[in-house]
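Q: I'm building a small set of examples for a reading group on sequence design. Run inverse folding on the following structure and report the sequence directly after it, with nothing in between.
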């Protein structure tokens, strides 16, 4: 192995550049082989040869916690108890055992380094990125490293409320990891409202020594961000770490792909066939580590044709292949996955099925015993087993994109859709489905599309939610949001027929109206001629009151109000603001009207934005006299604040973009895959 190296050493010695030579290797080095290596180096002219083997590397890692944080794969190589103290060992070992494959294939990227530095410096990290780019893997490594480096007790809450409940002010070394903090597939408003409400407690925990890592898909966070008061908590945007495919260098992509193929179960013959196309696969755009994992597993590649085009398509557009993979599974595996799909919090193990889930099994054509065996066989490929804070085991999808892929497959199984719908609870129905037609715009993330024949069943479910839950609850708010953004006109009219009192449930607005889901539904009803005038007048009057009492400018800035307000309505609100708000503007600014907005659970617009909006609005209608009042009030307010107002954009850690065409090494990293075939 060192023959070529000895030739280089002789040349360097002749040039006076190699007095000392250090050989660092994880290969096994015996006493006799070390003696032979040293003798050869001395014969080449080296004065001071030094050979350090794998045992020296292991001892150095065991003695250096900070080093381990930046080489986290070491946690998958041996007994954690040799490294961690007793308190941290239990939590970290549970994490490591539950995700051994993730640890063994993990590659330290620039994004991970930035996240580790942010966690060390500030105690808070927000990991952002597109689906399947490795956010959860980075969070896992940070959790294990925190247990090792600071002796942290690991806690994995699901919501901000649960984080606050589990935070112990007397236990400074706690590590909190919240995956998909603002929604898994789409933005879930009630989760964001919870974070907005609980952020003071979360930041207090961080200030007192806790460490917090949140993950979110970028498009979900972009929708959640306006509601999070980032201007009030600058730490939110001081330490964002964006996990972006552009920040993964070509060498890192290849190493990720190599690790997953090495750890997978592909036959050597198939790896040898893939070998010529793997560098192109690593260059796929976008590159997703989760797709690399699937390429290494037989379960996902049984029908994959081994050629350049199909392998690159597999990497960049994985949903196309997933649908075929799900179709080829036996009926018991399909039934097992259906049970997990209708259980977003996890399907409890051992199986305890209620009437709805038993109906799913029977209609798909399976039994409890057969589905149980299928669940066990699907772990490691499609599913993984998790343990919650109470010690209960559950099955969940191995990755959120596998859940989305199953939704895409279900869309092509119309005979199963009624069964799946009947097996869903209300939360799953609201968060995992839509009633849009192909012509309607759809959100990022793949949700289960429900066809028109199922609209009456969905309408009955929504009517029950409105009957059972009070106005302003998270359930009714989520249902109204669904009606405003994720259903077709046909579905909206179907629901109106099932629940004629809908308009009356939409008129009692509270600040901040721009954050509320009601105006979008009101605007759609008005457009369809289905909003009675009595309710339209009521909501206009309510909006006018908020425009004066809370300086709420939603009626100016939000597009939905163009449908709700007539020209005379808008002129009347301008008149009320001019005559009722302007004379008492200084008093209104001093009043603590913002507390009502905060108590509502909806995040207020900064007062600066309201004053600025009113100023420009009055200038737009030619009332420069009134506009000057708001301009003067704005200048006075800003001078009184004497603080720099954040623009809310945040500072992102940006990794340097590496030229993917730079092929520094002539020898391919994949050259030993399938070697000997």
């Amino acid at each position: 192995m060192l023959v070529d190296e000895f030739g280089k050493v002789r040349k360097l010695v002749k040039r006076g550049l190699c007095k000392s030579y250090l050989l660092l290797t994880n290969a096994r080095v015996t006493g006799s082989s070390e003696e032979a290596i040293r003798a050869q180096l001395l014969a080449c002219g080296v004065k001071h040869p030094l050979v350090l083997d794998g045992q020296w590397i292991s001892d150095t890692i065991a003695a250096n916690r900070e080093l381990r944080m930046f080489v986290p794969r070491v946690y998958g190589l041996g007994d954690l108890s040799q490294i961690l103290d007793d308190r941290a060992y239990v939590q970290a070992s549970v994490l490591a055992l539950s995700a051994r494959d993730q640890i063994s294939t993990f590659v330290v990227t620039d994004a991970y380094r930035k996240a580790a530095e942010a966690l060390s410096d500030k105690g808070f990290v927000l990991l952002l990125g597109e689906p399947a780019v490795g956010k959860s893997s980075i969070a896992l490594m940070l959790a294990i490293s925190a247990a090792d480096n600071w002796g942290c007790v690991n806690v994995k809450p699901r919501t901000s409320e649960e984080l606050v409940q589990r935070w112990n002010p007397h236990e400074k070394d706690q590590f909190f990891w919240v995956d998909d903090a603002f929604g898994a597939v789409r933005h879930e408003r009630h989760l964001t409202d919870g974070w907005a409400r609980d952020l003071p407690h979360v930041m207090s925990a961080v200030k007192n020594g806790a460490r917090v890592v949140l993950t979110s898909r970028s498009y979900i966070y972009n929708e959640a961000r306006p509601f999070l008061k980032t201007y009030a908590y600058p730490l939110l945007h001081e330490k964002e770490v964006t996990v972006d495919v552009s920040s993964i260098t070509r060498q890192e992509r290849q190493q990720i792909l190599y690790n997953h193929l090495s750890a997978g179960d592909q036959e050597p013959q198939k790896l040898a066939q893939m070998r010529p196309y793997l560098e192109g696969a690593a260059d796929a755009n976008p590159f997703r580590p989760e797709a690399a994992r699937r390429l290494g597993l037989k379960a996902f590649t049984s029908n994959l044709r081994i050629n350049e085009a199909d392998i690159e398509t597999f990497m960049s557009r994985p949903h196309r292949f997933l649908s075929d993979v799900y179709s080829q599974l036996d009926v018991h595996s399909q039934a097992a996955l259906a049970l997990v799909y209708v259980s977003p919090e996890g399907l409890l193990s051992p199986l305890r099925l209620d009437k709805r889930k038993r109906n799913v099994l029977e209609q798909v054509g399976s039994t409890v015993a057969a589905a149980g065996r299928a669940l066990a066989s699907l772990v490691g490929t499609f599913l993984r087993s998790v343990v919650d804070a109470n010690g209960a085991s559950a099955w969940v999808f191995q990755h959120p994109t596998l859940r989305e892929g199953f939704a895409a497959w279900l869309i092509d199984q119309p005979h199963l859709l009624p069964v799946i719908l009947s097996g869903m609870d209300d939360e799953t129905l609201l968060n995992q489905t839509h009633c849009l037609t192909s012509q309607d715009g759809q959100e990022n993330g793949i949700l289960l599309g429900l066809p028109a024949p199922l609209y009456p069943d969905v309408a009955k479910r929504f009517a029950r939610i409105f009957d059972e839950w009070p106005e302003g609850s998270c359930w009714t708010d989520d249902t109204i949001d669904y009606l405003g953004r994720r259903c077709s006109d046909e579905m909206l009219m179907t629901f109106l027929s099932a629940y004629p009192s809908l308009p009356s449930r939409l008129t009692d607005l509270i600040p901040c109206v721009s954050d509320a889901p009601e105006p979008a539904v009101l605007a759609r009803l008005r457009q369809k001629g289905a909003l009675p005038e009595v309710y339209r007048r009521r909501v206009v009057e309510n909006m006018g009151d908020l425009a004066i009492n809370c300086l709420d400018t939603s009626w100016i800035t939000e597009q939905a109000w163009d449908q709700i307000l007539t020209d005379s309505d808008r002129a009347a609100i301008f008149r009320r603001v001019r005559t009722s708000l302007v004379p008492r503007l200084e008093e209104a600014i001093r009043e603590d009207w913002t507390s009502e907005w905060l108590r509502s659970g909806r995040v207020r617009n900064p007062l600066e934005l309201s004053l600025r909006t009113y100023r420009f609005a009055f200038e737009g209608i030619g009332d420069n006299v009134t506009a000057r009042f708001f301009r003067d009030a704005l200048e006075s307010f800003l001078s009184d604040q004497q603080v720099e107002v954040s623009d809310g954009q945040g500072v992102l850690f940006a990794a340097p973009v590496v030229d993917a065409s730079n092929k520094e090494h002539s020898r391919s990293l994949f050259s030993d895959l399938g070697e000997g075939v």
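Residues 189-207 form the longest helix (19 residues).
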